[in-house]
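Worked Example 4.2. Read the sequence first, then its C-alpha cells.
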Amino acid sequence: MVKIAIDIDGVLADFNGHWVRTYEHWFGVKLDPEAANSWTAFLDHTHFGGEDEFWRWTDAVPGFWENMPLLPGAAGGAYRLLAHGHQVELVTNRHDRVRAATDAWARRHLPKHWRPVIHFVKGDKSVVPAQLYVDDRPSILEGLRSKGLRAIRFEQPWNADVKGDADWKARDWAGVLKIVARESGVLVGQRTVFDLLGTDPVGVAS
C-alpha cells in the first residue's frame, strides 16, 4: 500500500475549463479557446481587475465549487487506486472558506463509498505526509523535490514547458495508474518529510 496525496484542481477537477464555461454563460461572451491554458488566464481573458475580484465572482456563482466537473479518468483513477489498497488523501491550496463546498463536491463526484480526507494547506504540501504526491503546479512540485519527496507532475498546458520539477510525469489518469503500478514496490519504502526531518506530524494542517 502506498499513501498518495493528490491535488484537486487541475488533477481531479477541471477548474480551468469550469470557470471558462461559467464565465461565458454568465457574461454572454466567447473566450479564446486557449483561454484556459495559462496560470493567469482568469485575468488575461476576463474583465476582472485582479485576483480578489475573480475569487469574489466564483463565490457568487451558485454551486460553482460543488458542480465543478471531474477531469476525464479521474473518478475511475481514484476508484482503481482505492481498489488496489492504496491510501489516497486530497491536498489543496483552496481557501478554507470553500471547505464545505469542497466536501460537498467530493460527495457528489467521487466514488460513492469513499469519503476522502481533504487537507487545506497554504503553499507547501509536504506538511501532509505521503509517499507519493500528484500535482500540476511546478512550484509545489519543486518544493516537494527539494525535500527528497517523490511526485508525479500531472501534465497540463500551463506546465508543459517545465522540466525537472518531478520524478515522473503523466499526461492523464491512465498514466498516473501506470506509474503507481510500476513504482509501488519502491514507493512503499519511501520516507515522508517527517521521516526525513525527524518531525512529529501531530498538528498537521487538515
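Now turn to a second chain, presented in exactly the same format:
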Amino acid sequence: MLKKGLIIGLGIIFLIGCSRKSYTELITEGDAYLKNDKVKEALNAYREAFQLTAVAGQKVEVSGKIGDIFTQQVPNADSAGAYYAAVLDYPDELNSESLRNFTKKIYEAGNYGAAVRGYSMWLEKYPADPLAPSMTYDLAELYHKQVRDLIQAVALYDSVARKFPKSPFAPKALFSEGYVYANELKNYDKAKSLYEIFLKIFVEPL
C-alpha cells in the first residue's frame, strides 16, 4: 500500500513538472500574445518567465519586455522603472549601447535613484567612450534638477569642462556650474570666477 502511494505521488510530481512551461516557451507565448494585442496575457507570460529564470541574460531580456509594456501598452512609470532597473543587477550582460539605452529608459520612467546608478555604471565602464561627455553632462543635470544634490552636480559639470574641453558640452557645463554657484549655492565669488573663465574661453570678443 505504501509502495502504491509512493508511486502515485511520484507520478503527480512528474506530471506537474511536465506541465510547467520553460522560459523559452513563456517568452514565445508572450510575444505571440503581444503581437495579437493580448497585452494582459503577454504580461502574465513574461512575469512568469521573470519568476522562473535565474539566468542573467534571460533576466535582462524579460525585464526589458515587461518594462516596455508598462511604458507603451499599460502606462505605469513606477512599474516600468522598477523592471528596467532590474537589468542593472547584471552589468556583464550589458554593452555600452544597451546599458545606455536602459539607463535612459529608467530616467524617463522617473526612477532617478536607479538612473544615477545606471549613468555611474556606464561612466565607470566606458570612461573613454566618445559619448562620455554627454553622459557625464546628463548625470550632472540629473543631480541638479531631479536628485537636487547640488554639490555632486557642480562636481560633474566641472568634470565635463575639465576632462572634455573640446566637447560641445563643455561650455554648457561650465555655464551651468556658474549658474548653480550663483543662484542656488549663493557662492558669488566662485560663480564670478567661473563666468569669467566661460567668457574668456567660449565667448568671442566683439
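Notes for the reader: The longest helix spans residues 2-19. Residues 10-16 have pLDDT under 50 and may be disordered.
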